[in-house]
Amino acid sequence: MPILSVRDLRVRYSSSGPEILKGISFDVEEDDFFAIIGPSGAGKSTLIRCINRLVTPTDGEIILYGTDVLSLNARHLRRLRRDIGMIFQEFNLVNRMSVMDNVLSGRLGYMGNFAGLFRLFSKKDISRALSVLDRVGLSDHVDKRADELSGGQRQRVGIARALMQDPKLLLLDEPTSSLDPKISREVMALIMEIAAEYGVPVLCNIHDVQLAMEFCNKIIGLQDGIKMFDGPTTKMNKKKLDEIYAMEVL
Amino acid sequence: MSSTANTSARPQGDPPREWHRFRFPESLYRWGGVMLALLFLSYSFVYLNIPLDRFLGMFGRIGQVIADRYYPPDIEYVTEPDYLASVVDTIQMAYLGALFGMLMAIPLGWFGSYNMTPSRGFVYPVARLLTMAARAVHETIWAILFVTILGFGMLAGVLALTMFCTGFAGKLFAEEIEAIDMGPVEAIRATGASELNVMAYGVFPQVRVAFTGIGIYTWDVAFRAATVVGFFGAGGMGWYLKRNVLQIETERVAAILLSIIVLVLISEGVSAWARSRVARAK
Amino acid sequence: MAVADATIRNVDRIIAARAKTRTIRALIYMVVLLLVVWSVKTTIVDDTDWERMGSVGNVLHGVVQFLGIDWGLVPNLWQPAVETIMVATLGTLLGVMMCVPAIWFGALNITPYPPITYPIARLMMTLSRSIHEIVWALFFVAAVGLGALAGVLAIAVRSIGFIAKMTAEAIEDLDPKPVEAIRAVGGSDFQVFVYAILPQILPVMIGVIIFEWEINIRRSSVLGLVGAGGLGLVFFRQLNTFNHPGVTTVILAILVLILFGEVVSYYVRKAII
Lengths: 250, 282, 273
Prior knowledge:
The structure holds three protein chains of three kinds. By secondary structure, chain A is of the alpha/beta class. Chain A folds into two domains: 1-82 and 169-175 and 202-250, 3-Layer(aba) Sandwich (Rossmann fold), CATH 3.40.50; 84-166, 3-Layer(aba) Sandwich (Rossmann fold). Chain A is built from nine helices and ten strands. In chain A, strand 4 and strand 5 (67-68) form a beta hairpin. In chain A, helix 5 crosses helix 6 and helix 6 (151-164) packs parallel to helix 7. The model of chain A has no long low-confidence stretch (mean pLDDT 91). The radius of gyration of chain B is 27 Å and the shape is flat. In chain B, 44% of the residues are buried. Helices cover 81% and strands 0% of the residues of chain C. The longest helix of chain C is centred in the first third of the chain and has 46 residues, at 2-47. In chain C, helix 4 (78-106) runs antiparallel to helix 9 and helix 5 packs across helix 7. Chain C has helices at residues 2-47, 50-53, 56-64, 78-106, 114-130, 133-144, 148-172, 176-184, 189-220, 231-240, 244-272. By secondary structure, chain C is mainly alpha-helical. Chains in contact: A-B, A-C, B-C. The interface between A and B is medium-sized, with 34 and 19 residues.
């Protein structure tokens, strides 16, 4: 029984614009580290943003833990989003806030308007934030401002923020594209460890095929909004990769 | 034509290219437009009946008027307690107007920014229209309207300045919000936060410094406007100006104008200093 | 359990620090709030003649009488509207001419004698921007008499500051390479100005002038209040004859005029830049 199943997903940003995703279907199982690869412009980011509806699909079906994602109203959508942790390519931290507040903002989905506005985080949230920061190796940087950190450290804050949500699914949108190769590998390894610890499946957009082959157990390959490959990493080979990246101009 | 390797020289066989500074119809539109503008300008002179002879002799005349009637300014008049009290009133009116205006401008800026508005079809145009209307109507007109409805006094002045500042700050706030990085907004939204908290965490930290700068600037502009709303009965030092203009007490008028200039210069200096401090505190 | 103890101590420390920040913030807000309440009390509450204003109903009545449009007035608005636009346009143009010395003196890299000419230019710009257009208009009405000329002059003088400041800054940010290039092909100072400097600052200047023109329409629409013609005069007359729907009509006309200015400036900007 897949925990996430996507059926015939189609996205168009404007009614006259081009179709970005042309009917994508796939399933994510409980302990998957699932990679989406493909050249830039293939629709990877759009696809991953459909799962928590940062992008609204034009057609198709997304079922996550038995919930029909596309039929939710605003309140239930917020509920859904708080169960999905997301980690971004540009980290998307709030630069002028402290590391602590950035991590705590992961709890906002559990808080009301008023408590959030006045930053009234509970003692439990704060001690949880500390242990999460400890886990990602940032316990010395709690009071720093987010923009004082290096790229790798910022992405660790991003991971900590996602963990604060107590997620049932992690979405990674090119988590390593803004990092150098060595740090990229470290960050991916950390995410993999943490996903295993917390027992969270991961759906990951990744440009770097090397990393995808190394860390992920399943891969789908997109090209221009169409699924070109779907299967375990072991089935992926040079020829199929060339097919997927055929249209990319180097 | 198939030779693409040779890009440095013109391919053989092409007809020699010509280049003209003026090309038909573009040049016609262009110079036609300029001619029309000039025609409108010269017609304006005739239509408005501007006496060119008076215009040319104006600078001498202005000098003479100032020397004869406005000099020396009656400095004693502007150091009287009554007048000084009106200065304090003016300052208070300005900051209250700026404050209330900004309180109104924050939601208007939010609703009127294309990227963050709750609804692009309805709320956005309404917020835009309100901001534009508040801005387009001149502060003196607001003052007159409020004086007519509420009577003379500073209540009308503060409300007029509030409307003025709402329009002024609302537009700048909206522009500032439209210029933010949407990444953090997306991230906070992805945590399941409410829209108000998305504003508080994703947007506000990004615009806080700019908003403070705009706020100081708004106060500065409000103070300039506050010096004249009294002219139409809305409290503050403008009323003294009006009275002395009507009584043709020109030396007092000169002193009041001087005091306005000095105060505005001071306020501008303070505002420039405060804004540079805020900008450095990024 | 040393680690757990440390974490608990940390949590307590962080919670205490956050509570302190919140308290300080709350205190600052309280002080500001008290100041505002005091200001409201001394300026608004004490200064207002509540008796005369009467009940909420009275005020509402005052508002309601402004609702409505006096269609009979509309044909009489064309001429003052055209006048308003003309005053704004001529004023902007005259302002551009008058700001040449301020630009020349006010750009640090071309000012002839920085210790003296630069402060003079700065003072000119600040004076122009800091005095309200109504005050300028009063001054020019006293100097050249009632009429459009006073309005044009007021607008012109009020425009100097902003145009000169922006243009002087553009000159200070000039890219020196084209200047060198024209010098290198043997250009004279004048040719350097025409071919290297002017093309760089012209787009900025035109943008600023159009922006200022738009603002000047708004300004010239009220100068009639102090005797400089245009829609402001009509507004004043409607108010003095207690024709309240007429007042609303004039305000709507001003809005239309400003919208017209925005549309024109949008197209001119697109055509030129």
